[in-house]
Structure formats: C-alpha cells, structure tokens
Amino acid sequence: MRYNKKKFIYLISPPKIERNFFKDLNEVLKQKKTSFFQLRLKKNSFKKKLIIGRKIQKICKKFKVKFLINDDVYLAKKLNADGCHLGQKDMKIKEARKLIGKKIIGITCHNSIRLAKTAIKNKADYLAFGAFNSSKTKKVKYKASISLLKKAQKITNTPIVVIGGINFNNYKNLLLNKANFLAISGYIWKNKKLKPKNAIKKLI
Hints:
alpha/beta, eight-stranded parallel barrel, 19% strand
C-alpha cells in the first residue's frame, strides 16, 4: 500500500445509494484526493450490491482509486475488488486471504493496541482506529485519541486509517499527527451546506 500524501482520503459510501450518487462520485474522485473507496451497504441484497459495486468499480478504475468492500469477502472476490475491510466480528484474515489472496485487507481495531498487534501479526494491510469524533454515520461505541494514534505509530509501519465524524473542522489535526488516511463519509455525502464535490475541495 503506497502512501500518497495528497491522496489522504479513504472515502466510505453513504448507507444508501441514490440515483445521483454515481455522478457525484465521479466529481468527488476527479479532485484526486482519494486513495480508497469502500462500499459499505448493510441493507441491500448480494445481487443488488453486485450491480452497484460494478458501477462504482468502473468509476474507481477511471480515477485510479482502490475499490474495497466492507465486511463481505465473498462479494469482494466476486467483484474482483482491490480488497476488503473486516470488522472484529467478520471473517478472520487468514480465511479471507485464502479467498482473495494478496488483495488489500484492512482491520477495524477500535481503540485497542491489543487488537492492532493481532492484526499486525496476521499481516493486515492497514489498521483502522476510531471513533476520533462523534459520528452521524455510526453510533460511537469506541472512542479513540491522538495518544492512541501515536502509540500505534511506535509499534508498526502498517498504514493507519482514522475514522469517526471527520470533517473540515477537525481533519487537519489528524493529518498533523501523521494519520495516513482519513476515513470520511457523512461530511461528503450528508453535508447540509456543501455538495459532495465542494465538500471534498475544502479538504486540502
């Protein structure tokens, strides 16, 4: 996983894909600030996710953005996605590797160095910590801090993705503290003041 300082955004899909989403996604990725796009749909059928996934995958390829699937390794395999993101209750890394080989596998570590060490031992490609702020996308169960981020950086060179309520007012602090990627969703897709492409333009 090469780290590009200008492309620090790890973009997560909105929970529901509306019709104008694909046009918005085109405009957002065109800004060249996104390294990863994660498809995170909890309520659609496998078949529906396949249809949506194929459309998104084309847009991601066009802008050289890695396309990842949340939770579902079988969907990642079927779509030949660039990888998948696994939570603590999802499939284990070793099993996922058997299905998708050398593709990217990222792991949710909440606010735990212990979970991070296990993920490192199992050769995760990135570690996701959070929530760093309160979030409208997901109920905050685990609260992460800058000191946790610094501890994680001391024990590994594995890229770190930070997550949770990241927006224009708080993103710079995370970059200054050397988070590799910022996972963002609500600020882009549910912003009441700015259209998606204008929201991402503000993140420099």
